Amino acid sequence: MVSVWAICSCSDDGKAAKKAMKVGMVTDAGTIDDKSFNQGTWEGIVRAEKELGVEIKYLKPVGTTEADYVKEIDNLYDSGYKFIVCPGFKFETAIFKAQTKHPDAKFVLIDGNAHPADSSDAQNGPNTVGIIFAEQEAGFSAGLAAALQLKEGRFGFIGGMEIPAVQKFNWGWQQGIKYANEHFGTAIEMHPEDFVYQGTFSDIAAGQQIAASMFDRGVKCIHAAAGGVGVGVINETKARRQVGKEVWVVGVDVNQYNEGLLPDGKSVVLTSAMKYIDRGSFDMVKEELSGTFKGGRTLQLTAKEDAVGIPTENPNLSNDVQKQVMDVYAQIKSGAVVVADQQGDLFR
């Protein structure tokens, strides 16, 4: 199997020297331990290191401009890392340039597709794969679970930047709540003023402030799809719980249960709307090693591939609730329940 995992070159005496495939990653605004998108991507690459024997490295840009991203992609390439994974739509134009500049490299763009600055049409080159997720199905599952567990009260949503991936979490969250109200008799309230976008993925203080305002209005549970802003939401939820308030938060991208732990060992994270980002990065490395990597395409990962949903273990959800969610999830997989990837008329 080592021969599959390695790239061979011959030394002067004719003996084959094995060189591990090099896999690089450039982070977005966060870090590899941001408890969210960057971390999920990096975990898949770390898994590839452990299971497939690849050599790995990540670089964090000094800023978040196209030039910053291209610079670090070039640095990885110059160091021999010719399989490069980038998380987030902000890399779309940078990878569009890099895929032509480095035609012998392979690129994986998670949550986006390569395209020039003057167009939003996907233009993934023959050495690039874009991966997008059905976030609406993850949001739906989390909304359904939260509604079934809490049964009544006012729910809200705090997003980071108002981009498609975050919007789909929001729209799915609303549809899951509505489905629970209509099919399971829950009584969850949704008001437009409780569904907002902060505008960044980094402002922790703003996330905490917005969450505080929502809780003051009587919101009982907030789904935060906002990176660092979501950390602020979790912090505020923890602060409220420690003074006896019955409030909850629903995490995003990865299982954020441990981020909500209180001194008593309980967590304020009811569940999380997950995208199995790690599987996306790991599977692409595996394809490259097996010789089946095919660029020029976009992969959409959905419930049918078990790529989105809620965690397999949810300590704050009852067994009955988890079973009900899984029953509906099976209907999503079969197509019997369709979750829209647009706003719809939930507030109208």
Overview of the molecule:
- Residues 1-18 have low confidence and may be disordered.
- The chain has helices at residues 2-5, 37-52, 66-78, 92-101, 135-150, 164-184, 204-216, 228-241, 277-290, 319-334, and strands spanning 6-10, 16-20, 22-26, 55-59, 83-87, 106-110, 128-133, 152-159, 187-197, 219-225, 248-253, 269-275, 297-301, 308-309.
- The chain has 348 residues and is α/β, with parallel strands linked by helices.
- The strands form 3 sheets. The chain has a 6-stranded parallel β-sheet, sandwiched between helices.
- The protein folds into 2 domains: 2-133 and 277-305, Rossmann fold (3-Layer(aba) Sandwich); 135-275 and 318-334, Rossmann fold (3-Layer(aba) Sandwich).
- Helix 2 (37-52) packs parallel to helix 9 and helix 5 (135-150) runs parallel beside helix 6 (164-184).
- It is globular.
